[in-house]
Every structure is written in structure tokens, then in C-alpha cells.
């Protein structure tokens, strides 16, 4: 068996994905054959592997950091929220049904534990090291009995655990101590120490606190990672309350032509794969902004309607906020609009949905001659083709089947009418030649003197970002101590911090027995 490590967090969005990817890139640069792993992921940002399996985009990004091909083994359980209380369950890359949160945690989650441990065991057999990512916090004591992603998998595989805390939020010392003190004695045995993330300023001012944390917990801090701008990695969370005003970080470079291009992305409910616009933000002179008001489309040169896990719900939302009328006005004026996946579907004439929303027949915005029927079986594919005279690669994740009934010209699997384009293909804009050709068409229709930079390589920029993550670990973590932890396993003799988990919740060790 190869070595292993679980990267947990004091909260969601503490930086687990970044740290996991950084450790993977640092290890592979040392010649270590490493793989990422996340037993259970909740995300609307997903990816399709070459074998046609759907996994979280964060794990695909971590696989790229490890320089290995992404696989369903790396994310055996993916939950795709369809609202606040239910999710589609994707097992080993294929959807197996919809479950309420109560139904999932009441039994289904524990049934998947054998699959999860088998996947981790297979990765450890075939790699020198596996760096696992937890979810949320390991101290969610209400969910500990059915946990398969944090201390449950750590206990089953005897993995050492480092806990990441976001100091930028404040309260990081209390979070480290409280997270540890709420775990059972058996779980606490696996907590090796901590990593401080997003630190700003003079680290010597932090050191007294780190010393006191060691005195309180008997556990060391493995690194203090500085706040880093513009990492641009794939994010997991598609359930933010609002993305209005959020700007995707762009390359710090002046526009290649005389003008910039302003891109407005409609922040539809249950937005999925909003990372599609990262390739636009990578272009010098392209500014990408998420919006949710009709007036914010007025000065946009391109409006993107992105993917969503709730196409009919997104359509209603666009109408309620006046965005549907604004999109229709843009189309009539010949101003560019791009619909991707669910966004493509809402631009069509009609949607027949007895699967996702079960709303039946719903009229679309009528901007493209397309009729969509939702099928029970999900399309998962990695298409390759040409458009605008350029080669394109992408991936498809959708239940809707599009019947394209015309248009001025084909556009990947969709079509164009005037300045309105639509396709099911995610990731197409990462193809450099195609992206430049598309932006030239947008600039022409928008009347902008924008010229795409001739040498922007999205793949090269992504590699640079992943190398920056590796640099963060190499330069700001105790890599010798981390390597010993990965190779040698669970540390010996770490003290118990009272009070520990409530007794009824501490007994289940997810191995079929009790303690």
C-alpha cells in the first residue's frame, strides 16, 4: 500500500482543495506517483473522464496537479444538488437516483462506504501516495455516525489527518482547537496537526499563537500558507446565495487591441460548471462578471447563460428578474449571447421535462430554433469537433436532448441565429484557436476594437496555476515533516483534548462495529 494523508478543514471553503492540489503537485515534482481522492463530493461543477464517468471538477483539477488521468476512483460519490433538500447521487461516475438529504444520511450514505474504501484501496495499491480531501468539517457531530468522507474514511484506512483553517475569516485558533476537541478519542488519534491558509502579513507575529496551539493540543502546525491572488482553480461550490458582482480573475495584462470586452454571466439558480467562463477570463482584455439584474446586461459585449441543474427553474428566474426580456432585446439588436448546456436549453423554443423539474411542457425564450426533451438517461461524453474553422474539444453532462430545427449555421452540437449561439458542450472555450475565433465574432458583433492575444494558452496558464500551488506547499510548509507523515502514517502519542464527541455519536467507526 502507498502512503496517504487526509486534508480536512475547519469549515467549507477553508482551502482543502487548494492544499490537496498543492501537495499533489509538490509530490509529483519530487518523482512521487500520487493520486487525489475525495470519497464524497457535493458540487455542481463536474467533469467527464475519458471513460465517460462524471466526477467533481476539483478532483479533475487535482488529477491534473498530480499529472495523472482523472478517474471515477478519485471521486466515487458525487452529489449534485437540485435544491436545498435533495441531490442527484452519482456513483462511480453514473447517476443512480435522487435522494433527499434525510434519506441519504439515514442509510444510503453508509451503504456506499464499501465502494468508497475499495476505491481508496485500489488507488493506494497503484500509487506511491494518495492525498485525500475531506468535506465540510470533520467535527459535524450530527453527521458523524454516517460519515464516509472525513473521519470515517480516515479511521477505516488509518490515515493521518491535517486540518486546514482559513485565517482570513478570523478565529482560526478557536477553530483548530474546537474541531479537535469535538472529536472522539479514536478520531483524535488521527489528527496530526494543522495548516494555516490565507495568511497576510508578518508570520513572526503568528508564531506565539502557533506555540500556544501546540501547548494546548500537542499537535504541530505543518505550514502557514500566504494569501495568494489569482489562483483561478476550479471551485466546488455552486450553491452560493449570490454571485452578483463577483469577477473571475483575469490575467494581469493589457488588452491586445484598443478595446476590452465585457462579459456578463447570468447567475442562474443551481448554476453548474460556471468554470466554463474561466477560459474567457484568461484572455487579456476580457473582464468577466456575474450578474443577476437586467440593467447589468446593458453594457455587456457578451452575455453568457451558463449551465444549471434546474433548467426550468432558471427559465422562471430569468423571467421574474426581467433578464429574459433583456436577452430578447439583445438578440433583436444583434448583440451577442451564448448559452451553454442548461443555458442553451432555455434559449430554445420549448422544453419537455418530466425528469428534472417534472414540469411538463414549458415555453423557452424562443431565441434559437431548438426543442429540448429531457431523457431519463444522462448524456456523459467527451466530444471532439470543429467550429468557426477551428478544432474544439469539450464535455457533455445533460439530461436534455436537443432537436435543432434550423439556424444560420451549426455551432458544435447546437446552432447560431444572428448573434445568439447555443451548445451543450462545456469546456469548449478552453480550445485556444476556437476561443479566439469566437471572441473575434463577438467583438465584430459588439462593435468593439478588441483583438484576442495570439499566444494565450489556457492549458499553459492552468499549468502555471498548479505550479503556484505546488510552490505554496514547497516554500511555506514543512515538507520534510509532511513527507514523513504521508510515509509513516498516523502519529503516535498525540493527546486527547476534552470533551470529545458526545458518546452516542463517538461509537460508530464505519467499519461495522462499535467502540
From TrEMBL:
Choose any GO biological process term that the UniProt entry carries and state it: cobalamin biosynthetic process
Example GO molecular function: catalytic activity
Concerning its family, UniProt says: Belongs to the CobB/CobQ family. CobQ subfamily.
Report the coiled-coil segments: none
The record's region (Disordered) falls at 496-515
Q: Where is the CobQ/CobB/MinD/ParA nucleotide binding domain?
A: 6-235
Please give the pathway this protein is involved in: Cofactor biosynthesis; adenosylcobalamin biosynthesis
CDD domains in the record: CobQ_N, GATase1_CobQ
* PROSITE patterns assigned to the protein according to its UniProt record, in alphabetical order: GATASE_COBBQ, GATASE_TYPE_1
**Which keywords belong to this entry?**
Cobalamin biosynthesis, Glutamine amidotransferase
**Active site residues according to the UniProt entry:** 341, 426
The UniProt record lists the CobB/CobQ-like glutamine amidotransferase domain at: 262-432
What is this protein identified as?
A: Cobyric acid synthase
The organism encoding this protein is Streptosporangium nondiastaticum
Function noted in UniProt: Catalyzes amidations at positions B, D, E, and G on adenosylcobyrinic A,C-diamide. NH(2) groups are provided by glutamine, and one molecule of ATP is hydrogenolyzed for each amidation.
Q: Which Pfam families match?
A: CbiA, GATase_3
Question: InterPro entries from the entry?
Answer: Class_I_gatase-like, CobQ/CobB/MinD/ParA_Nub-bd_dom, CobQ_GATase1, CobQ_N, CobQ_synth, GATase_3, P-loop_NTPase
Amino acid at each position: 500500500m502507498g502512503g496517504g494523508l487526509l486534508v480536512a478543514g475547519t469549515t467549507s471553503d477553508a482551502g482543502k482543495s487548494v492544499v490537496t492540489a498543492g501537495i499533489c503537485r509538490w509530490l509529483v515534482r519530487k518523482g512521487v506517483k500520487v493520486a487525489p481522492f475525495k470519497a464524497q463530493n457535493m458540487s455542481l461543477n463536474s467533469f467527464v473522464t475519458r471513460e465517460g464517468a462524471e466526477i467533481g471538477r476539483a478532483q479533475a483539477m487535482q488529477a491534473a496537479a498530480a499529472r495523472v488521468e482523472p478517474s471515477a476512483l478519485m471521486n466515487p460519490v458525487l452529489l449534485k444538488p437540485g435544491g436545498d433538500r435533495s441531490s442527484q447521487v452519482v456513483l462511480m461516475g453514473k447517476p443512480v437516483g435522487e435522494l433527499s438529504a434525510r434519506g441519504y444520511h439515514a442509510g444510503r450514505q453508509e451503504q456506499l462506504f464499501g465502494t468508497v474504501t475499495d476505491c481508496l484501496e485500489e488507488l493506494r495499491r497503484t500509487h506511491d501516495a494518495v492525498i485525500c480531501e475531506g468535506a465540510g468539517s470533520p467535527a459535524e457531530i450530527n453527521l458523524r455516525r454516517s460519515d464516509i468522507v472525513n473521519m470515517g474514511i480516515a479511521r477505516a484506512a488509518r490515515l493521518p489527518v491535517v486540518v486546514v483553517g482559513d485565517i482570513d475569516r478570523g478565529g482560526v485558533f478557536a477553530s483548530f482547537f474546537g474541531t479537535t476537541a469535538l472529536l472522539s478519542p479514536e478520531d483524535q488519534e488521527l489528527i496530526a496537526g494543522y495548516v494555516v491558509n490565507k495568511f497576510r502579513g508578518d508570520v513572526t507575529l503568528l508564531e506565539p499563537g502557533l506555540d500556544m496551539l501546540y501547548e494546548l493540543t500537542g499537535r504541530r502546525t505543518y505550514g502557514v500558507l500566504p494569501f495568494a491572488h489569482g489562483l483561478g482553480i476550479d471551485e466546488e461550490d455552486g450553491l452560493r446565495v449570490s454571485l452578483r458582482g463577483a469577477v473571475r480573475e483575469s490575467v494581469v495584462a493589457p488588452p491586445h487591441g484598443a478595446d476590452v470586452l465585457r462579459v456578463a454571466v447570468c447567475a442562474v439558480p443551481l448554476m453548474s460548471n460556471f468554470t466554463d467562463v474561466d477560459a474567457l477570463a484568461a484572455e487579456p482584455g476580457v473582464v468577466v462578471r456575474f450578474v443577476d439584474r437586467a440593467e447589468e446586461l446593458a453594457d455587456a459585449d457578451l452575455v453568457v447563460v451558463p449551465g444549471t441543474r434546474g433548467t426550468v427553474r432558471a427559465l422562471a428566474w430569468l423571467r421574474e428578474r426581467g433578464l429574459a426580456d433583456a436577452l430578447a432585446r439583445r438578440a433583436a439588436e444583434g448583440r451577442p449571447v451564448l448559452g451553454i448546456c442548461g443555458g442553451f436549453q432555455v434559449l430554445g423554443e420549448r422544453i419537455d421535462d418530466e425528469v428534472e423539474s417534472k414540469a411538463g411542457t414549458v415555453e423557452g425564450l424562443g431565441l434559437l430554433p431548438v426543442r429540448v426533451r429531457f431523457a431519463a438517461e444522462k448524456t456523459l461524453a467527451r466530444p471532439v469537433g470543429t467550429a468557426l474553422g477551428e478544432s474544439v474539444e469539450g464535455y457533455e453532462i445533460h439530461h436534455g436532448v436537443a432537436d435543432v430545427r434550423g439556424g444560420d449555421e451549426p455551432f458544435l452540437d447546437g446552432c447560431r441565429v444572428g448573434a445568439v449561439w447555443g451548445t451543450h458542450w462545456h469546456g469548449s472555450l478552453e480550445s485556444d484557436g476556437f476561443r479566439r475565433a469566437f471572441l473575434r465574432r463577438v467583438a465584430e458583433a459588439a462593435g468593439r476594437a478588441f483583438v484576442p492575444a495570439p499566444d494565450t494558452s489556457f492549458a499553459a496558464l492552468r499549468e502555471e496555476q498548479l505550479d503556484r500551488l505546488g510552490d505554496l506547499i514547497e516554500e511555506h510548509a514543512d515538507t520534510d515533516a509532511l513527507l514523513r507523515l504521508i510515509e509513516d502514517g498516523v502519529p503516535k502519542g498525540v493527546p486527547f483534548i476534552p470533551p470529545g464527541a458526545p458518546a452516542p455519536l463517538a461509537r460508530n467507526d464505519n467499519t461495522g462495529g462499535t467502540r
